[in-house]
Amino acid sequence: MLHLKNVSRIYRMGSGEIRALDDISLSIEAGEFIAIMGPSGSGKSTLMNIIGCLDRPTAGQYLLDKEDVGGLDDNSLAGIRNMEIGFIFQTFNLLPRLTALKNVEIPLIYGGYRRGKGRLETARTALESVGLADRIYHKPNELSGGQQQRVAIARALVKNPSILLADEPTGNLDSSTGEEIIRIFSKLSHEGKTIILVTHDEAVGRYARRIVRLKDGRIN
Amino acid sequence: MLHLKNVSRIYRMGSGEIRALDDISLSIEAGEFIAIMGPSGSGKSTLMNIIGCLDRPTAGQYLLDKEDVGGLDDNSLAGIRNMEIGFIFQTFNLLPRLTALKNVEIPLIYGGYRRGKGRLETARTALESVGLADRIYHKPNELSGGQQQRVAIARALVKNPSILLADEPTGNLDSSTGEEIIRIFSKLSHEGKTIILVTHDEAVGRYARRIVRLKDGRIN
Ligand SMILES: Nc1ncnc2c1ncn2[C@@H]1O[C@H](COP(=O)(O)OP(=O)(O)OP(=O)(O)O)[C@@H](O)[C@H]1O
Ligand SMILES: Nc1ncnc2c1ncn2[C@@H]1O[C@H](COP(=O)(O)OP(=O)(O)OP(=O)(O)O)[C@@H](O)[C@H]1O
Ligand SMILES: [Mg+2]
Ligand SMILES: [Mg+2]
Predict the structure, then answer these.
(1) Do residues A37 and A200 lie in contact, with contact meaning Cβ atoms separated by under 8 Å?
(2) For residue range B46-62, what is the model confidence (pLDDT) as tens digits?
(3) Is any ligand 2 atom within 6 A of the Cβ of residue A46?
């Protein structure tokens, strides 16, 4: 359902260029649980941003459900992201002036869910599922690093997206809390969701059906 | 050299209170290499902020080299931090508009090191030691997550501080890059520096001479 063909992402800097991704070809079926691994700086987040329609390739083609994403304008890209894709960012990207509950409610608001008890309940349930029931009114700076990470996870899950992109979702979590998160992902995978997970943790990578390893912007 | 006696850190919120630290007593000798571990939300970063003079206890006493830190004003606290303590934050806290090189140079500038080749060389060497020689002119948003983490590490090391506080310094690093960082810490420890390291990674914790485990704001 998801095809990258000869995708490159190049940054021009001063006199040189950085090939963050270099001629990547990758196909992912609907419902797969795939882990992307590799050294720091090898291109994992760059690949996730392209898959998640947050960035465009410099060269090559990205087909999502047979649609050539490179040909879409920014509004259509935003539309795809809001409908289909839940994204957990490596650096969380929470809105600092909003509570955890409000941060998680934001995708529902943008998704046109009607204001009211139902919307709040959906957001609260997502936060409960990641163990934050007693932190829902805290702002990000009133939360620990791993709690912020879990708010970002709840926000990505709240609309039950068909594709979940998770960029190092357990990096700030102890092993037991991390396992709870990966169990949530496994359950979603069994329900048919597509899960693409970047991790540095081999133990986490093992939950995936397939591991794609990057090195210097290329698939190893 | 570092004594916490019955230290608590309490946040008042609405109708209740959160005991982020609850009656902690802990002594750390000069030159120790100690790991602080525990579940997400158990109080590790709060403890680090108090040890690093970035926060004050709500109750109890913190003696640093026999000096009662609680009695000092903000300027004196800032003075201690700049002179003695290198701090690697869980969320990096880099200055977004400055290059990696400039970010690492900042403590030298504040420390009164004279402008010139020597100061730049010191900053560059710190970045080389964490494998970022070819990224020194990148700004934080032009760096991967693990590269940002390593800039934060270089910045903490650049003045060769006698106390290094590292809050989850390998959370965004693959195991091989993470080991390089921990080797740097071990080397500093052998040179007599005091290293206090928060980690979720048992493998990293094993490098320390002693592990202190927190749970719900208390030492286990
Ligand atoms: N400003 C604040 N107001 C209210 N509660 C806070 C505040 N800052 C932290 N807390 C709470 O204090 C507790 C301890 O936070 P701390 O950041 O020390 O945890 P931690 O052990 O570092 O967790 P992690 O492993 O997730 O980084 C958490 O439950 C957190 O929600
Ligand atoms: N805006 C940019 N300009 C220039 N170079 C960039 C930019 N963004 C990223 N890079 C470079 O692209 C490379 C890949 O970055 P990416 O964030 O994809 O790595 P990563 O595999 O996610 O690393 P980590 O495990 O450290 O998070 C890095 O070497 C980085 O320095
Ligand atoms: Mg990354
Ligand atoms: Mg923390």
Answers:
(1) yes
(2) 999 999 999 999 999 99
(3) yes
